[in-house]
C-alpha cells in the first residue's frame, strides 16, 4: 500500500507529474486534516447520525448539540473525502461511508477510527522521540485507563474483518481441545475458533487493561465458558502446557528480539507434539522494498511502546531455534501487509 496525493483532474495530474505541486506541504497539512475530519466525524456522532438517515447540516447539528457552521464545514470535508454526498443541502452516507463507518455495519471500523485520535499526540511527539528515544509507553497505562477500551474496541473491529478468513485457513490438529491466545486482548480470534471447533476452549493471556475489556466483549458474545482470560505479561507469566494450538497475533512486534526468541521456545514447550503455532504480524525487511504501510507501522509501534517490526528472516531463525520443523506462510487478503505464519 502507498499513502499518496491523488489528482482529481488532468490539470492536477500534469502539475503533479511536472513536479509543480509542493508535495511535502500538502502531505504535512493534508494527512493531519484528513485524520482530524474522519476521527471527529465519528467522535462527534455525525457518521452514526447519518447512518440513521439523510439530513441537513443544521438538523444534524441540532440533533447532536453541535454548532451548525463547523458541522457543515466538516460534512463538506467528508463529501470531498468520499464518505458523504450532498443534494439540496441534505447529506447522506455514500456506500463506502456506510460500509466502514455505520456502527451497525458488520464491516464497521468506526471504533478503530475513534481510537486513532489517541495516536495524534504520539505523532506530535515524534521529533522529541527522535532526540530522546522515548515512546508513549501506551502499554504502561493503568488497567482502569479508558485508553484500553478504545484500543481493544478498535482491534476487535479489525479482528472481526479477518477472523473468518483466518479461521478457515488456519490448519488445526484434529479435534482440538485447548488453545492459548497470547496477547489475544479482545478474544475475538479465540471466539471465532471456538465457534468453528465445538470441543475447543481458549485461554487468552494478556495485560490486565486489555484482558478486562476482552472479558466484557466475550461475555456479550455469551462465550465466557469457552474463552477464559488470564491477566499476565507473556514474557514472564507461566504459559501452562498441553495446547493444541497457540496464537500470537499482533504481539511479536511489541517484543524485543531476545524476548521474542525466548517466548517462541516457551511456546514450543507448551504445545502438544504436532500442535500448531500461528503468528499474525507485520514482518518487513528494512530498505528492501519501500512500503508505506510497513515503514509507517514500524515507526508507529516504536512510538507506541518502543517496539519494532522484525524481519521474516529473524522470525524464521527464532522458530527454527525453538525447534519448529515446519514453517510456512499463508497468504491473507483482508489485511494487506499482515502475514499469517504457521509453524509446527
Ligand atoms: C495490537 S493488540 C493485538 C490484539 C489481538 N491479538 C489482535 O491481533 O487483534 C496487541 C495486544 O498485545 C498485548 N500485549 C502487548 N505486550 C504484551 C505483553 N508483554 N504481555 C501480554 N500481552 C501483551 C496488548 O495488551 C494487546 O492486547
What does it look like?
With 344 residues, this protein is α/β, with parallel strands linked by helices. The chain has 2 domains: 10-107, Winged helix-like DNA-binding domain superfamily/Winged helix DNA-binding domain (Arc Repressor Mutant, subunit A); 129-343, 3-Layer(aba) Sandwich (Rossmann fold), CATH 3.40.50. It contains 15 helices and 10 strands. The chain has helices spanning 10-17, 23-43, 46-51, 57-64, 68-80, 95-101, 110-116, 120-124, 126-132, 147-169, 188-196, 208-220, 257-270, 292-305, 312-322; strands at residues 55-56, 84-87, 90-93, 178-182, 201-206, 227-231, 243-249, 271-281, 327-330, 339-343. The chain has a 7-stranded mixed sheet. It has a 3-stranded antiparallel sheet with strand order 1-3-2. Helix 13 links the parallel strand 7 and strand 8. Helix 7 (110-116) packs across helix 10 (147-169) and helix 10 packs parallel to helix 11. The protein starts with 9 loop residues before the first helix and ends with a strand. The mean pLDDT is 94. S-adenosylmethionine (SAM) binds next to helix 10.
Give me the secondary-structure topology:
Layout: H1 10-17, H2 23-43, H3 46-51, E1 55-56, H4 57-64, H5 68-80, E2 84-87, E3 90-93, H6 95-101, H7 110-116, H8 120-124, H9 126-132, H10 147-169, E4 178-182, H11 188-196, E5 201-206, H12 208-220, E6 227-231, E7 243-249, H13 257-270, E8 271-281, H14 292-305, H15 312-322, E9 327-330, E10 339-343
Parallel strand pairs: 4-5, 4-7, 5-6, 7-8
Antiparallel strand pairs: 1-3, 2-3, 8-10, 9-10
The protein binds S-adenosylmethionine.
